[in-house]
Write a structure and sequence with these properties.
By secondary structure, the chain is an all-alpha fold. It has three helices and no strands. It has a single domain, classed as ACP-like (Non-ribosomal Peptide Synthetase Peptidyl Carrier Protein, Chain A, Orthogonal Bundle). The radius of gyration is 12 Å and the shape is globular.
């Protein structure tokens, strides 16, 4: 899955889970400040991303994630690990 496909999936998930307008879910959007996600929302998003990647995601893998673009990049890395 490429980055643009990952972003499209994240937009769908966030729009459905958090009632966030898809047009506001852009790579530079800060998850907390711009999209008003809290830690509980982040857990819900990780659950959806686990379904998308087919992999268990450890919380520490997302500790440095701050923007939608960071989420896209982390999912891309998880899905493009050698041997995956």
């Amino acid at each position: 899955m490429e980055r643009d496909e990952i972003l499209a999936q994240i937009r769908k998930y966030m729009a459905a889970l958090f009632d966030t307008p898809e047009e506001s879910i852009v790579p530079d959007a800060d998850l907390a400040q711009d999209l008003d996600l809290d830690s509980i929302d982040a857990v819900d998003l990780v659950v959806e991303l686990q379904k998308l990647t087919g992999r268990k995601i450890k919380p520490e893998e997302f500790k440095t994630v701050r923007t939608v673009g960071d989420v896209v990049e982390r999912v891309y890395e998880l899905t493009h690990v050698k041997g995956a």
